[in-house]
Amino acid sequence: MTWQQRMSTSVLLGVVALLVIAAVAVQGGGSGTAGLDESAYKAGYDAFGGAYLPGSDEDREAVEARCELLWAEVPGADQFEKESWVTGCADYVEDMDSRF
Q: Comparing C-alpha atoms, which of 82, 65, 9 is closest to residue 90?
């Protein structure tokens, strides 16, 4: 195999590797959006209107429980799928990036 053939093979393998990485990134790569209703998630995530919330020592279950109570109190929230809304709310409370 000549030097040029080896270089071509190396470049081709590099391009294939980049395409695989890009495909995983585009498909979400485990971003956790499967089964979530996007509009309900975003409504829960935006429930605080972008207000700063101080960090909390609560575990995820406690945060979700508080968000579930909030879902029942926020006018109009009941029009959204509850689980996705609560997940969006909890992600915001925990200062996570939006999944959408």
A: 65
Say if residues 88 and 40 touch (Cβ distance below 8 Å): yes
The number of C-alpha atoms within 13 Å of 64 and in the hemisphere containing its C-beta is 10
Could you identify the residue written with the tokens 């980049």? 18
CA distance 11 to 73: 57
CB 43 within 8 A of CB 70: no
What tokens does 52 get?
Answer: 């700063």
Name residue 66's amino acid. Answer: R
What would the two tokens of residue 27 be? 């498909």
Tokens of 91: 């992600």
pLDDT by residue, tens only, the chain of 100 residues = 776 666 566 544 444 444 445 444 444 444 578 899 999 999 999 999 989 888 778 999 999 999 999 999 999 999 999 999 999 999 999 999 999 9
